[in-house]
Amino acid sequence: MSTDPSSTKSLFLVYAPDYPDPECLSRRLSVRTTHLANAGNLLEQGILKIGGAMITPETYKTDQKKMTGSTLIYSADSLEEVREIVENDVYYKGNVWDKEKLVITPFVSAKPL
């Protein structure tokens, strides 16, 4: 939740696994620059609090990390607002994130973000 007591914003966790097909990584990489630029704008606005790629357990200590999805935390007025942001992301529109497995849920942080 927000550290500002007058704020009505809530936190939302997004779990966005990638599609499992072999071509998904190339789709991800083809729009990654745009995705990161848009995420940077959302960070600057305070809407995106943190986000990053999920990677396979066998590659997390290597130089060749295999991305398998994304996890993000947003600050927003509603779940619907976050859903709109997510559905306008190039990873969602470009069939990187698996739309059937995507989860958006309210989130309470143990520490202020």
The CATH superfamily name is Dimeric alpha+beta barrel
Judged by helices, strands and strand pairing, the structural class is alpha+beta
Largest sheet, spatial ordering of strands: 2-3-1-4
Q: The CATH topology, please?
A: Alpha-Beta Plaits
Strand content: 25-35%
Question: Would you list the SSEs in sequence order as H and E?
Answer: EHEEHHE
Radius of gyration: 15 Å
* Anisotropy-based shape: globular
Counted up, domains total 1
Give a quick account of the main beta sheet: strands, pairing sense, barrel closure.
4 strands, antiparallel
Pfam family, one: YCII
Organism: Cerrena zonata
InterPro entries: Dimeric_a/b-barrel, Sec-metab_biosynth-assoc, YCII
Domain YCII-related: 12-98
Keywords:
alpha+beta, 3 helices, Alpha-Beta Plaits, 113 residues, 4-stranded antiparallel β-sheet
Please give the structural blueprint.
Elements: E1 10-17, H1 24-45, E2 48-55, E3 67-76, H2 79-87, H3 90-93, E4 103-107
Structure description:
By secondary structure, this protein is α+β, with helices and mostly antiparallel strands. It has a single domain, classed as Alpha-Beta Plaits. Strands 2-3-1-4 form a four-stranded antiparallel sheet. The termini are close together. The model has no long low-confidence stretch (mean pLDDT 94).
